[in-house]
Amino acid sequence: MILFLLVLLHDSRDKTPIKKVQYFNNKTVKTVQSAVLQLINKKMKSVKSIEQKASNKKIKFSVLYAPFSILLIILFLCYGCQKESKGDDDDDKDEITADSFNGNINAKVENGSSYNSTVSKVWALFNAEVNNEGELRGRMITEGNYANGKFTIDLPTISDQFLMNIQTYFTSSLGINTNLEFSKPETRILDVDFFGISSNDKYIDHFIFTNSTSKKTICLFVFVDSNVNIEGGSNVNVKLRKGWNRMYWTPAQNKVTSIVPKNMKWYLNNDLN
Fold first, then answer.
1. Which portions of the chain are predicted below pLDDT 70?
2. Strands, DSSP E only, in the chain?
């Protein structure tokens, strides 16, 4: 987004022809299955030992008692694993109040029906640029369909190798050099732009989510790898959750916030001043 509005590149990273990236990460899932089976076997052996030594009355009591003991063990282990599964990001989740956005976009474009015959799909790219020949280059993370002046697109998780330091992003990409404070300076970030593409993969125009035709305030769609708060005087007050977020940037004022402005709408750049 920043590239097209400021006629600048996002940064000095290498540009490569459009191609899809591998954005899904393997996640380690803890399981209590093996632990439970071991405890069940141990408990059943204990019950059999009691059965051999005890009277008929005691045997009946042990057999009835065993299932309840096993159930209590399973509940205890599940509760413990649930607590262990909470990471650092969950610890400060209640402290983050961000714009409600989960990466799913359902956009109705202003004057969008005028582009039904030319735009058939939407590409989400980062590190995007249009060269002198009008060719679109960058890295595509996903695409969506465009029809009847609307498009839908689901943004995926982004691999860490494509992220940049959040401090560098604010100072270099957004050009905000005021005294910024980051709750987690090590946080990494990436933003994406959305492009209208024809049926034969030709670049038509790019989409902007803004509150006026003069692009006074522009929405930036960003992915971060951890919860983070950014503050900088009265102009910067951003709260981001791990995953996809929306930030609202007013370039003329060097202002960035998580608060949604009024009258935000989708446009194709051709229809903006």
1. 1-99
2. 104-108, 121-130, 136-147, 150-154, 164-165, 181-182, 188-197, 203-210, 218-224, 228-232, 236-240, 243-250, 255-257, 265-268
